[in-house]
């Protein structure tokens, strides 16, 4: 201090040290983490906070103190350089492979969190000071930091700040609200890269989760304004994979460009790789952050807006949501495989918004239009649960929408099939409406639409009156399955005769087709390849051999029988009276003998037994399609038939084989699961029955969940492979 130093040399020395401050900070952080590890390993859980460990450099307490004495003056005099160095080290310490994927905002690693602890330990770095310094770094990064071209300093700085906000006390956060507000406002004007804007929304969301209510009305208004701006900015990024349609410039459609899946940790690296690939391959640049923006909005938007806008201010939310929906709907209209990531994120967003009744005005019409679109069921299986929630919210809070759907089905049925219209198209329209009505009921609670059952039954009977329409009748059987799952048994009593009659009709058709096929091959030898054989059954139906629509109907009817057998008998008491007609069952009199006017007639054989015999014959004639050796497993409470499409009737042989065997055995379980007690429970004789009932409940609850997942997939068309 006594020696006079040339200020020029001093400035050079200072700038020299500041230029390597990130390296110094990296070393200091490493030492800090060593001290942290030493304290964890040496200190017993019950030891007092004052206790200190020793490493070969000395006492950990003294070393911590010396680190803080070194960093204190630097942070006071060169705050921006200090925080920029922290951001640099933050990037250095990120996890190479993250265990948690599908997060837009990456989860901080243990080493990164030590940086947060280090900054919080520096006495000069109060919460407000940190916020102001972060803002300074974002606005004007130090010259030395700009040289590090391979990292986005702003994004690393905000990742640190997001973790910092998560870990400071609520009181510190509330006290520094003015500084945070300025930081949020200024950040929106800086043109930050997309990952930086995601972090701004993350910080805002974190603040609102910790402190939902601001005392001052002025503060609340400012919070609402900044929320509006941040959400709109993310909405713009979300819409960046859209472009105007050719005809109407106001309408948007999805660009035909690749979309990357979400992984926050490697976000920028993934994006850079994709950009290079695409730029080499084509002339356009994809909008690579749109999926991430949509995913983040899906995670936070609905709850965020509900917290920021009080009950008397919900109207202010609608214009913002209308803008967001302007970007969301085009993604939901596009069912192509390359749009699947966006579709998933958008349906999750719409599902979360639909849970808040005040938002209905912003999405109700669009959601209903999407539901009525002919491509609606072309989606990934993971999206169905979200659509169920949306349709349930849509119909529950607005009964007119549900009545409108029933009316549409009725109108479609009452309009006669004109000679001047495309008959197939009209029938497909009827089937489509019936399927949507079934999905609506499937999305509801048990008995929610019980009062509409007479109307629904009328619609189903009307559909069955049309002969030779397998496309429509297949949907009726899907509807029957939905009703078994969504209506109490007592409400379905009047529908059972129709359900059983239709099932018998389909099995008779199958039998006639197999018999006719056998007769044709016997009389005329091998048929000419590629020709369809058409014949009429005794009931006026005619079918085309192996026509895909008829095969779909056969599969749908078999799945109905499969479900009726899988559900517990007490939940389908009416069906138990008809079981004997379909499946052989073990009984003392080994079958049903019919005697009339003294003549002994042949024993009645259940449909399953008859069909198994015919299918085995056909399978022998077509060795390439022989499914007789294939077996399918059987478990009580599980569906046996898990195919979604069949290309020939022989594919049903393993199912019929199983039915003819499993229920015909006296040892088989015909009435649900057999509960076997654990030997260790033998001392608790009094509670055995209770345990048994409880176990049965748990069993059927799980079984029902599995069954519903299978039925859910039957609604889907053209599954997007994930």
From TrEMBL:
Q: What is this protein called?
A: Protein dopey-1
By its UniProt entry, which InterPro entries does this protein fall under?
Answer: DOP1, DOP1_C
Segments forming domain DOP1-like C-terminal: 160-521
Q: Which PANTHER family match?
A: DOPEY-RELATED (PTHR14042), PROTEIN DOPEY-1 (PTHR14042:SF22)
Which source organism? Ataeniobius toweri
């Amino acid at each position: 201090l006594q020696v006079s130093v040339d200020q020029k040399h001093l400035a050079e020395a200072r700038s020299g040290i500041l230029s390597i401050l990130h390296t110094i900070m990296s070393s200091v952080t490493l030492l800090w983490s060593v001290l942290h590890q030493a304290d964890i390993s040496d200190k017993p859980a019950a030891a007092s906070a004052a206790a200190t460990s020793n490493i070969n450099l000395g006492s950990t307490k003294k070393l911590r103190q010396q680190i803080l004495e070194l960093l204190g003056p630097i942070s006071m005099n060169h705050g921006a350089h200090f925080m920029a160095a922290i951001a640099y080290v933050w990037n250095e310490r990120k996890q190479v492979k993250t265990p948690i994927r599908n997060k837009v905002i990456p989860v901080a690693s243990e080493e990164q969190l030590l940086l947060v602890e280090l900054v919080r330990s520096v006495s000069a770095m109060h919460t407000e000071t940190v916020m102001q310094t972060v803002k300074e770094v974002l606005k004007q990064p130090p010259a030395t930091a700009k040289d590090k071209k391979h990292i986005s300093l702003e994004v690393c700085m905000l990742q640190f700040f997001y973790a910092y906000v998560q870990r400071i006390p609520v009181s510190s956060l509330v006290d520094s609200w003015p500084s945070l507000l300025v930081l949020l406002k200024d950040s929106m004007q800086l043109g930050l890269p997309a990952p930086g804007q995601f972090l701004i929304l993350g910080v805002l969301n974190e603040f609102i989760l910790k402190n939902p209510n601001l005392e001052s009305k002025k503060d609340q208004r400012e919070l609402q304004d900044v929320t509006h701006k941040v959400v709109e900015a993310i909405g713009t990024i979300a819409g960046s994979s859209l472009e105007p349609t050719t005809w109407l410039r106001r309408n948007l459609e999805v660009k035909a460009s690749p979309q990357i899946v979400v992984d926050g940790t490697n976000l920028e690296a993934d994006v850079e790789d994709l950009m290079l690939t695409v730029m080499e391959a084509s002339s356009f640049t994809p909008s690579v952050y749109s999926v991430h923006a949509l995913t983040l909005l899906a995670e936070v938007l609905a709850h965020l807006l509900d917290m920021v806008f009080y009950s008397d201010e919900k109207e202010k939310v609608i214009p913002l949501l209308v803008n967001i929906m302007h970007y969301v709907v085009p993604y939901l209209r596009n069912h192509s495989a390359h749009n699947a990531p966006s579709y998933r994120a958008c349906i999750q967003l719409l599902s979360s918004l639909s849970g808040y009744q005040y938002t209905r005005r912003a999405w109700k019409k669009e959601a209903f239009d999407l539901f009525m679109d002919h491509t609606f069921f072309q989606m990934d299986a993971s999206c169905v649960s979200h659509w169920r929630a949306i349709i349930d919210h849509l119909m529950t809070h607005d009964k007119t929408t549900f009545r409108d759907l029933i009316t549409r089905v009725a109108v479609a049925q009452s309009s006669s099939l004109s000679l001047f219209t495309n008959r197939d198209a009209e029938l497909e329209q009827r089937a489509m409406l019936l399927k949507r009505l079934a999905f609506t009921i499937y999305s509801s609670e048990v008995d929610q639409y019980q009062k509409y059952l007479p109307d629904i039954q009328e619609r189903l009977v009307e559909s069955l009156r049309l002969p030779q329409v397998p496309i429509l009748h297949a949907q009726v059987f899907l509807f029957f399955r939905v009703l078994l799952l969504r209506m109490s048994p007592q409400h379905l009593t009047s529908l059972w005769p129709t359900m059983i009659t239709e099932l018998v009709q389909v099995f008779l058709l199958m039998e006639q087709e197999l018999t006719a096929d056998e007769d044709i091959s016997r009389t005329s030898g091998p048929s000419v390849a590629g020709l369809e054989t058409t014949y009429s059954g005794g009931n006026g139906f005619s079918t085309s051999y192996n026509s895909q629509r008829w095969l779909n109907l056969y599969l749908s009817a078999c799945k109905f029988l499969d479900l009726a057998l899988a559900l517990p008998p007490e939940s389908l008491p009416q069906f138990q009276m008809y079981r004997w007609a379909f499946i052989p069952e073990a009984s003392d009199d080994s079958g049903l003998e019919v005697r009339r006017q003294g003549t002994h007639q042949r024993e009645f054989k259940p449909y399953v037994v008859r069909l198994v015999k015919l299918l085995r014959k056909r399978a022998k004639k077509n060795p390439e399609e022989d499914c007789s050796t294939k077996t399918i497993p059987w478990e009580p409470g599980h569906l046996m038939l898990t195919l979604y499409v069949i290309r020939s009737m022989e594919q049903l042989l393993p199912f019929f084989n199983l039915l003819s065997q499993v229920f015909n055995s006296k040892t088989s379980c015909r009435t649900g699961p057999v509960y076997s007690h654990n030997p260790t429970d033998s001392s608790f004789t009094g509670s055995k029955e209770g345990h048994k009932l409880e176990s049965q409940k748990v069993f059927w609850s799980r079984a029902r969940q599995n069954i519903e997942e299978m039925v859910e997939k039957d609604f889907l068309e053209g599954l997007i492979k994930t």
